[in-house]
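Incident log, structure service

09:12 report received: a user says their structure output differs between two submissions of the same chain.
09:20 pulled the input from the user's history:
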Amino acid sequence: METNLLFNEPYSKLAHDNYPLLLGASKYCPKQLFCKGTLPTNNKIGIAMVGTRRPSASAEELCRRLVESLRSTNAVVISGLAQGIDSFCHRAALDAGIPTIAVLAQGLDAKIEGERNTLAKRILDAGGALLSEYEGDTPAYKGNFIARNRIISGLSQSTLVVQSRKKGGALLTAQFCLDEGKLLLACPGNFDSELYSGTNALLDSGHAKPVFAPESLRSVAGIPLLEGTSIQQLATCGVHLSDGAQKVFERFNGFRKTFSELQQEFDFKAPELLAILTELEISGLVSSKDNFQFYFNGA
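09:34 re-ran on a clean worker, output below:
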């Protein structure tokens, strides 16, 4: 154990077998890894959320809504503690009670400046972790950031690029994600906006899957809700069902039904019923592998 000068707490060098989440099996697994804080349990699912250091005025609210969709899941938000999108996502996770990991491009004894210092302390106080492959007070050299990005991707099941210009570190993280055959996601934006030129390019090339609505991130990323999630729990997360969706779910919660059977039970027209089922799927209350049979909350 070595003394962390910044936070006056010890940090540890992890054995390879103790590398968290998917990092141990990643092609980008570092030779050494240092940790401060609490590592997530093996049942957690890492999702990397990255983007520009100079985002739009609405980016903080976008990040909040994206992260809110991960409530009532085993998700861990992973980012790089940089200004902008990274910090917004870490902060949103803390506010939502979701575990978060910051991967640093410097040693864990090196000084973290300004608001990022406060944010790092919040992450530790909330039971999250700071990770780095650099020892002691190693400074954040320019080349360290690219190396840091491969670890962010290596930890994660999927990577979301929230906002990015055509060049930037977030696109390097996206490439690391693709190189390992993992799921890459991106938020589409105004085609005239330089802030979305990178994410739009990922989508236009077909390399990334779009997240059109922030509240759908969980379902698009394939992160399941914890068993037994209820309408009341969803309401505490800011998810409110339409009257039709609530009526259908309350009638068939715990059952498996075909589309025809649902039509027989209700007087909804087919397009309206399809819209209700889509709403329930996005909320994580209904799943279907073939769009024929629908499973209500784990039926």
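09:41 both user submissions now match this output. Likely a transient worker issue. Closing.
09:42 reviewer note: Residues 1-5 have pLDDT under 50 and may be disordered. The two ends are 48 Å apart (CA to CA).
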